[in-house]
Specification:
By secondary structure, this protein is α+β, with helices and mostly antiparallel strands. The protein contains 14 helices and 9 strands. Helix 2 packs across helix 3.
């Protein structure tokens, strides 16, 4: 029995069959799940997927929403460029394709936020297309099964993996095969503590036969993780916090965050505080770190309480947002967590007012 046949039989017997985006040909649901699953685990994605489907049941609803709504609902899922591209893609599907997702992987790959592997997955599950996927889980399965050396992120290794993935495609049961690859990498052939005795490919796995399961796939050469520092100003006035919209690109692009400074020098912070109004108190809060893919950000927050807010003369977009309505704001996860500590224990609150 060849690899594809083993994988299909295993998936039909032991694979995942009850995820919220399965058992459907609805390209919208499949696309939404595939975008959310990029670099994010299934358990994390499920509640976000369900909230998105409830708020935006089809591509027309998502396309008609404001970017603010989309970013707020995405808040906490990370990799925020995905949310911006999701919104842009929905609008393009409505404008260019009348709300119908194309079934051709090449056309799908031309849309915002959809790469080669994601386009293949969407086409496979929505239209039964015969196309190869190659996400991180699949790379791991192939590297181990065929004993492929080298870091999978290197161009030459990735090209070889794509060729292998395309060669392995079965002529039928493509959906079960594709889902089987995903399930195997996510639940059995995991990065750490793989369950080799339960693997349908164990009998032909080169990594297992040569004792190299822990070694493959080879990891990217490690570099020391750099640390950056930022001072965030938590400016409060009458149960409202001052938020500043970040630039579209860069970390937390398009989200609302706190005003920042490069220094945490007390004198500089106190001087900056006067720009926001008459200061009642100014005090440092415990610093903490937040990990990004390529660096760690050391955040030193300062709590500024105002007696009277100033008229803000600034070119940047700012709002006073009610602390009781944090769920309405698209905030970075560490900022949301920090602000939760100051959320008042009360019910309905007035809408946020734009700073003037």
């Amino acid at each position: 029995m060849d690899l594809a046949a083993r994988l299909i039989r295993w998936q039909q017997r032991h694979g995942r069959h009850d995820l919220p985006w399965q058992n459907t040909r609805d390209a919208y649901r499949i696309w939404l799940s595939e975008i959310m699953l990029q670099q994010t685990q299934v358990a994390t994605v499920i509640p976000y997927f369900q909230r998105f489907i409830e708020r935006f049941p089809d591509v027309f609803a998502l396309a008609a929403a404001s970017q603010h709504e989309v970013m707020a609902l995405w808040s906490g899922l990370g990799y925020y460029s995905r949310a911006r591209n999701l919104h842009r893609c929905a609008q393009q599907i409505v404008t260019d394709y009348h709300g119908i997702f194309p079934s051709d992987p090449a056309l799908l790959a031309s849309l915002p936020g959809i790469g080669r592997s994601t386009s293949a997955a969407i086409a496979v599950f929505s239209a039964g297309a015969r196309a190869a996927i190659l996400d991180g889980n699949v790379k791991r399965v192939l590297c181990r099964a065929f004993g492929i050396d080298g870091y999978p992120g290197e161009k030459t290794i990735e090209t070889a993996l794509w060729q292998r993935a395309e060669t392995l495609l079965p002529k039928k049961n493509i959906e079960a095969y594709t889902q089987g690859l995903m399930d195997l990498g996510a639940t059995v052939c995991t990065r750490s503590k793989p369950d080799c005795p339960a693997c349908p490919l164990a009998a032909q796995c080169i990594a297992l036969a040569t004792g190299r399961v822990a070694e493959l796939p080879q990891r990217k050469p490690r570099k020391e993780t750099p640390e950056k520092q930022v001072t965030m100003l938590l400016v409060l006035d009458n149960h409202q916090v001052l938020l500043l919209r970040r630039p579209e690109y860069g970390i937390w692009g398009g989200l609302w965050s706190l005003p920042e400074m490069e220094t945490d020098d007390p004198a500089a912070v106190e001087q900056m505080a006067t720009a926001f109004g008459q200061v009642a108190s100014c005090q440092p809060l415990p610093s903490f770190s937040h990990a990004f893919t390529h660096f760690r950000l050391r955040i030193s927050p300062w709590l500024l309480r105002l007696e009277r807010r100033a008229t803000l003369a600034t070119q940047q977009e700012m709002v006073w947002h009610d602390l009781a309505r944090l769920d309405d704001a698209p905030l970075p996860a560490p900022v949301r967590k920090l602000l939760q500590e100051f959320k008042p224990d009360r019910g309905a609150a007035p809408a946020p007012a734009r700073a003037r």
